[in-house]
Amino acid sequence: MARGDRNRRGSGDELVRERPAWIIPVLVFIGVLTFSGVFLYYYFGPTPAELLGLDPRASTRSSRVEAIVGDTRFLIPEHYTRYPSQRGGGRQMRVDMQALLPDMTPYQTGLQEEFGDHSAESDVVFFSLSETSTPLNATRRLKDIYSKYLESSEPRPGPAGLQLFTFRSDSGYANQDLLVGKDKEARMVLIVCDRTGALVDSPNCSRSLLLGSELELVYRYKRDHLSDWYEIDEALTSLVASFETVEPTDDLQGTILD
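RE: above sequence
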């Protein structure tokens, strides 16, 4: 046998002998461990939205969060807020909140089932304060937007003293109704309500209220409570007004430093 052939065969035998016998089981173990970790995280780990505080997560804390929305400063008890990302205080484009009707009860231990109820009889009211760059009061909203899509300019009698208008079926507000009234401040109230249908078995009603040149309050509740619209509106606007403050206060979460 030639010297070159012996050297090549010897080199190959040496390579075979030097390969660790445990490397394949280790690679299989690492693969199984990695797959299991990905599987467990996918089904049980926090989502990116949860890590960023963008998923709803109620709080039982009553400490106040100092926030500026639009041009207004608020002190908001944390147990009204819905998103962890909005509890840091400071300037906020929007603060989302929730409460239970009829007394605007905030979230607390023992009320998880009530706040998690999404049925047509749910007592949860969702409301938000948000900064707006296109302020529209109710009169302009009715004239410039809604009036173009109504079936008729003549209303029918609605519940609890409201006037009822129906939107055209070929409009973007199809399967919704518009109800018009006056609140305790004699301001026009526009309430847009879903109609119960094949795809909507838990209809909502919502109102947008301009509170300032840069501030808007929007709230919604189940249509089942529409007959109490006046009491709901009064209780909710009074609650939001109680959050408003002029001077910064010490010992707060998320104190404004401006």
